[in-house]
Amino acid sequence: MKNKDYESLLDRARERIPKDIMERSRWTMPEPDILIEGNQTILRNFSDIVDSMDRDANHVYQYLLNELGTSGTREQIRILLKGRVAPKRIKEKIVSYVKSFILCGECKAPDTRFVREDRTTQLKCQACGATRPVRL
Ligand SMILES: [Zn+2]
């Protein structure tokens, strides 16, 4: 069997797995695909990364702009950042987003949700039930 066939079979199998089981399995995020072109930096697979995070794309986008101190444009699947931004910095900011807004503070599971409580937002872990406040 050719490798491509095998991969498409795997993909089809994954689609049949219920979402809640998928979320409990090992979580992988695609490697950021970054291209510097002239005076702008393009994160080409932004939407794939956000999909794997299960977070609001605009929240991730605004976070990256603030942290990188630049402005940008969000397109369908990619984002364009003004200026030449070192890929390493973008990767670091994505990792810090994951640490701040996705991983459980107790068990480090990525299966978390934002839960509003009074005026604060808590990050609630679906695996162990722990919560911690997050500032959105
Ligand atoms: Zn947890």
Write the layout of secondary structure elements.
Blueprint: H1 3-16, H2 19-24, E1 34-37, E2 40-43, H3 46-53, H4 57-68, E3 72-74, E4 79-82, H5 87-101, E5 112-117, E6 120-125, E7 131-134
Antiparallel strand pairs: 1-2, 2-4, 3-4, 5-6, 6-7
Bound molecules: zinc ion.
Zinc ion is lined by residues 104, 106-107, 109, 125, 127-128, 130.
Low-confidence region ranges = none
Spatial order of the strands forming the largest sheet: 1-2-4-3
| CATH structural class of the largest domain | Alpha Beta
Bound molecules: zinc ion
Main β sheet profile: 4 strands, antiparallel
What is the name of the CATH architecture of the largest domain?
2-Layer Sandwich
Straight-line distance between termini: 47 Å
Order of helices and strands: HHEEHHEEHEEE
Radius of gyration (CA) equals 17 Å
Overall, the morphology is flat
Indicate the structural class: alpha+beta
What helical percentage do the residues reach? 40-55%
Number of strand segments: 7
Tally the helices: what do you get?
Answer: 5
What's the domain count?
2
Q: How confident is the prediction overall: mean pLDDT?
A: 87
Beta-strand content: 15-25%
Instruction: Kindly identify the CATH topology of the largest domain.
Output: Alpha-Beta Plaits
